[in-house]
Design brief:
Elements (H helix, E strand, L loop, with lengths): L2 H25 L4 H19 L7 H24 L4 H7 L3 H12 L6 H21 L5 H24 L4 H8 L4 H22 L7 H28 L2 H4 L6 H13 L5 H18 L15 H7 L1
Helix pairs in contact: 1-4, 1-10, 1-12, 2-3, 2-9, 2-10, 3-7, 4-12, 5-7, 6-13, 7-10, 8-10
Length: 307
């Protein structure tokens, strides 16, 4: 993986880590399914009007949108609305990385190098240590919902890799067309017209301003910038190479939640976060090129002497 692309993957980790406190702010005003429907509707309308559809099978586009848009965010937003702290949500969702590696091995026949296996294993163990340490801060149901969101993200990652779109940004914009209708149906069914009407009717009041800013960050930065770069990386490299970078997201998410909401990380989380960073960076390092063995060049006289 080129150094430039590793830096881009780190940018995505920062962008998505900051996305969790932004989502927590948005969920203080908007119910979870309505928030997801609004997020993708704001992207879908200009996409349908101005962006050409990627030249990939429509079924693959639906699968990318269903995994990344519907499954991931329906479960993630429901988890956070059910009491999952934003820092812990950023951690649990990174189970998508090993899920992606497994799914890519099964459906894409991608082979892992020993370095990737070791690096991902180290990072997963560090994430597990943080999860065990912080498990007392969240009930079981929000954790299970976040894990379901992680599986949706993994499905979307593998589908993105398989789609092989020539323009990753166009793919990012067009898969956002898939979630609005399913999310709107879920919102009407679960949250109800009264709750939706109140949230929308008070969306432009001063008290809703933090939620509005959080929604704008989710749409413009986390989706356009984050998923645009992520789709490009998945179109360029194997899923098993790109996916481990997502495990850097909780490091940023925990620190950002600390700054925004006072969710103070302790020494165990800081040390384990450093191990996650080290494991992911080590797993993404390209293998060392072996120097060719220099063969002795024999002069014609030496060749004749050997005869």
């Amino acid at each position: 993986m080129l150094v430039r692309d590793r830096l881009l993957a780190l940018v995505v980790a920062v962008v998505w880590g900051l996305n969790f406190p932004a989502t927590a702010l948005a969920l203080e005003h908007f119910p979870p399914f309505l928030l997801a429907a609004m997020r993708f509707t704001l992207l879908a309308i200009p996409t349908l009007l101005f962006v050409p559809r990627p030249r990939i099978p429509f079924g693959r586009l639906l699968l990318v949108g269903f995994g990344l848009g519907v499954l991931q965010f329906a479960f993630l937003y429901l988890s956070m609305a059910s009491g999952m702290p934003s820092g812990l949500a950023s951690l649990v969702l990174q189970a998508s990385a090993p899920f992606t590696v497994v799914l890519a091995g099964v459906f894409l026949r991608e082979r892992l190098t020993g370095r990737q296996v070791a690096g991902v294993t180290i990072a997963v163990c560090a994430l597990a240590a943080i999860a065990v340490h912080r498990s007392q801060t969240a009930a079981l149901l929000p954790v299970v919902l976040a894990l379901c969101g992680a599986m949706g993200w993994a499905i979307g990652n593998v589908a993105t890799r398989r789609a092989g779109a020539a323009n990753p940004l166009h793919l990012t914009l067009w898969w956002s067309v898939v979630p609005p209708i399913p999310m709107a149906v879920l919102s009407l069914t679960v949250e109800g017209p009264a709750r939706i009407g109140h949230a929308l009717g008070t969306a432009f009041t001063p008290t809703a301003l933090p939620a509005d800013l959080g929604l704008l960050y989710i749409v413009l930065v986390a989706t356009l910038v984050g998923y645009g770069i992520w789709s490009r990386l998945l179109a360029t490299y194997p899923s098993s190479t790109v996916a481990p970078f997502s495990m850097l997201v909780p490091v940023v998410g925990v620190l950002a939640s600390w700054a925004a909401f006072g969710e103070v990380p302790d020494l165990v989380e800081v040390l384990a976060g450093a191990v996650v960073v080290g494991g992911v960076l080590w797993a993404s390092r390209p293998p060392r090129a072996t120097a060719p063995v220099a063969l002795p060049v024999l002069s014609p006289g030496a060749v004749d002497a050997r005869r």
